Please model this.
Amino acid sequence: AESKILRAGADSIISPYASAGRRVADKIMVKSRKYYPGTAIEAAALPDSQLKWIEVNEKTGLIGHAVAAAANFVGANILGIRRGGKDFLAPTPDFQLETGDRLLVVPVDMAAVDDVPPEQPPKIVLVDDNPVIRRLYTRLFQKAGFNIITSSTGREGYKLILREQPDAAVVDLLLEDISGLEVCEFVRASEDGQQVKLFLFTADERGEVRENAIKVGVDVVVLKSPDAAEIINLVRDEIAAGEQR
Model:
């Protein structure tokens, strides 16, 4: 069919399957964590010369393998599978390959992502003089994917915040040396502390505490709760909201 079209005067033939493969390439690459949007995919625009077909047979040794294992074996991202005249775009990692399958792949060029830094986990500073609280929240924040640094005193805490430039700082109101309000006030008074999300951690529900916190630049006043996950979720949501602004 393709030869007839060419003889009829067409300059070239663009495979709709290859075009569809290009459209799903970004999604596949992101899922595989082998490419990042805006690097190799956009630069190369996935020309047809980079799209290759691989047969699943005894020679290639891919029979019975799942897509994820096959991709690692051949060093390429699998954009689609043609089986008996039917096309499967963006196959799942556990999709099992059979004899006669044809894989549409794009080779993985790891050099293309060497200059792209991996996504950094959000960083927070926790200032609390209670060692039990520090250990508890260190474990919980780390489990939630945060990079957490702790301090047991207010003076050390605000210096740590200014030095580390975290995404957020969780500061207990009642500290042994200076109050959490003073810590937040010192941070906000510095040019280096303007972008840090400040959370004041307290069991005091009085309105004046909240008012004083807002005056010194606290973003969120958090009431202590038996459910420790609340503060984790709140910090995550506030950081995400700040990134979208």
Q: What stands out?
A: The longest helix spans residues 16-32.
